[in-house]
Amino acid sequence: MYQITNGKNAEHQVAMWQQSQEDAGDDLIAPPTPQSFVHWSLGAAERRISPMSLESKQGNNPLFRNFNMNLRQYLAHHHPAHPLRMKQDLEIMPCKALYVNFQSSVNWKSERDILRCNPSFHNEPRYDSVIFNAEDDPLAMGELALIFRCFLPNGVKLDLAMVRPFRRSSWHPRTRTDCPIRERKSGVMFIALEHVVRGVLLCPIFGASREAFYVIDTVDGDMFLRINGIE
Question: Domain map of the chain by residue range?
């Protein structure tokens, strides 16, 4: 890897090269609405499949239990303008990559996160996490369990994700410095990709009495400002 750089700031050059290679291999999917209105794009798409077929395919995965019914209930609640009868066909297109553009809180320039939701990314499972806007929490967080485009019978397309949500925790480990903590909530939830802000890195707290995670706020300046509420 070092040989592809000019020897100056080599780590950054390698990271940029790797990102360009990731971009080239993902076959980006055009957004369902004009690009000027969205800040995300999908990549590494799989074949279309019905929610029921995906649920059956993931039969041993508890995260996908009642997937078809839960998705239809989500659509009925959040998209009442597009009513869906139970017997109407529904298709989804799972994707393994999500590209999110966001405005940096440091210099207001555009930045991009490449997020993965892949059971075998370079032969290892990789399920990245995101910050998303929720009604009760502008810094809601969740681990990606599925990224997909949903095709409604009337021709409408919706880009959604199924996430394993985290909640804020009042518990804190005995550490020398303070650090934001999140705990894993049970179950999964659907979110629209328009509500995704950017990616976030969480690290498991080993030896904790619960499934808790450190929120790593030092990955970049924007993350530090967001997590610590600095404007």
Answer: 21-169+176-227
